[in-house]
Amino acid sequence: MFDLTNLSVHFGPATALREASLTIRPGDRLGIVGESGSGKSMLALCLMGMAPEAATLSGTLTIDGRDMAEATERDWQALRARRVAMIFQEPMAALNPLSRVGDTVMDPLRLHLGLSKQAARARALDLFAEVGIPDPAARLRQFPHELSGGQRQRVLIALALACDPDLLIADEPTTALDANVALRITDLLVRLSAERNMALLFISHDLAAVARATSDIAVMYGGDIVERGPTRAVLDSPAHPYTRGLLGARPSATSLPRDANGKRARLPTIPGTVPGMAELPKGCRFAGRCPVELPHCASERPALTKPGPDRSAICHVLSQEVSA
Amino acid sequence: MTTLVEVKSVSRHYRMPREHLLRAPEVLTAVNSASFTLNRGETLGIVGESGSGKSTLARMVMAFEAPDSGEIRFDGTDIHALGASDLRRMRQRFQMIFQDPFGSLDPRRKIGWSIAEPLRVTHAETPAHKTAEALEQVGLRAADADKYPHEFSGGQRQRIAIARAIVTRPDLIVADEAVSALDVSVQAQILNLLMDLQDELGLAMLFISHDLAVVASICDQLLVMQHGKTLEYGAATQILNAPAHDYTKSLLTAAGA
Lengths: 324, 257
Description:
The structure holds two protein chains of two kinds. By secondary structure, chain A is α/β, with parallel strands linked by helices. Chain A has helices at 40-47, 73-79, 91-94, 101-113, 117-130, 136-140, 149-161, 179-196, 207-213, 231-236, 241-249, 316-323, and strands spanning 2-11, 14-24, 29-33, 56-63, 66-67, 84-87, 167-171, 199-204, 216-221, 224-230, 304-305, 312-314. In chain A, the strands form two sheets. An eight-stranded mixed β-sheet of chain A has the order 6-7-8-3-9-10-12-11, with helices on both faces. In chain A, strands 2-1-4-5 form a four-stranded antiparallel β-sheet, covered by helices on one side. In chain A, helix 4 (101-113) packs parallel to helix 7 (149-161) and helix 7 (149-161) packs parallel to helix 8. The radius of gyration of chain A is 21 Å and the shape is globular. The model of chain A has no long low-confidence stretch (mean pLDDT 90). Chain B is α/β, with parallel strands linked by helices. In chain B, the strands form two sheets. Chain B has a six-stranded mixed β-sheet, sandwiched between helices. A four-stranded antiparallel β-sheet of chain B has the order 2-1-4-5, covered by helices on one side. Classes of the chains: A alpha/beta, B alpha/beta. The A-B interface holds A 35-36, 149, 178-183, 205, 207-208, 211-212, 245-246, 249-254, 256-258, 262, 264, 266-270, 273 and B 49-50, 153-156, 183-189, 191-192, 195-196, 210-214, 216-218, 220, 236-237, 240-241, 250-257.
């Protein structure tokens, strides 16, 4: 249904996204994991037809077999909300503070589906109930500041669901929330995806949330998708050195990092910092920080290798191991 | 081990906005009779969700606000009984790191100026070598003192905030969500830096976070708060291995355990 092939995004000499390929089918739950500057939000914006004006794009994006290369902003407007909708990170910034949340949710229903005011209100009530907002009739009349962070996030989900999209993109939907609330929002997204056979693209740096929400995962670094595969398999046995570094750096609440004397142990880290978009190495983007780097890693682009069933990664070291 | 901070039955209430003209406004108990002791060189983690009172407790330890009842002793002195100038001098010995380093560094000042700020309270002239030393201790270069905050990445800015906190050679650092805004790999670097500095300088630390996994990696003692109440307090290993409270268990689930 959504098909990206070799999609690249450049800002002058800088590369934000390099030859990303991805297929999203109805009901898929795909997680995109990466740190700041990895290109994960850029990928989402491309799927929404909202790449920044200054960006140069190449590659193909098809939606239901339709090539979007020639699509105008007007064409995209017809697709947004109905085919693809997005939940943004900051629920307070994404809601109009001067508008009652009910009106905010009713707007796209009237605009895109042409519903009457009464029909839109009835639909908004159903949506609020579906996303687990208690006492929906009273909530419709409230303003964003009167709601808690978790309730605001539910309103945004209701808003995104309003026109029954085929793909819901959630960009860091749990980052601003308390741990327990984040858990409930994650479970809600999974339930909605299953009930509506709606694809879910779950973008997050929170590995615990991604593990819970998704069945497949793409790990991004420096504008590349460096590893792909079933979520459980990738998290249990990461193949790419970056994925391994990322998972190692995440502290765990159960396996306490203490040495033999009960002293605190240091966390494993990835040395160095992410280079700027224009300073990334031409070959493997992770070169310069990689613990198992080969001499040609920085200059030559690694090919796709298959470290396991349904899995792929781009890494010179892995392709040597696989061919050996 | 000698005691550095002693918090005894500290409570803090806030009056809520009035709902009815003729009725008394409701009172919110932000912190309800919290007690703990923190030894020199040790780390106490305070975990809880927003509204749990963890930041209010930290602010009272920093003497940014006073408790309604109870007592907070720093190295034996009741800090809330001190006069303004004595408190200002005492403050050199406890410093704070905030969540958002961009918000806590003046964008129009070179970072050397911001780092030396706590020193200016007692020094008319701020010795440049102290700023340089603090910068090097957090893994930056002495020459970085002449740069502005926007020239640094998020992780580097948090290092600058840490340099400012250690420049007075304090006994205690209060870190409120100090690594929450950082990417996972940067977070690990900053947590390691804090542990290294603690070992090197003998710092005690009050480490506040909503993320149990982060707290577990750095803390000796743990205090779990919810709605202003202390649910659990004790050795971190013990609480994490055998949580007594359902709320702690749910936090463990959320941390991906």
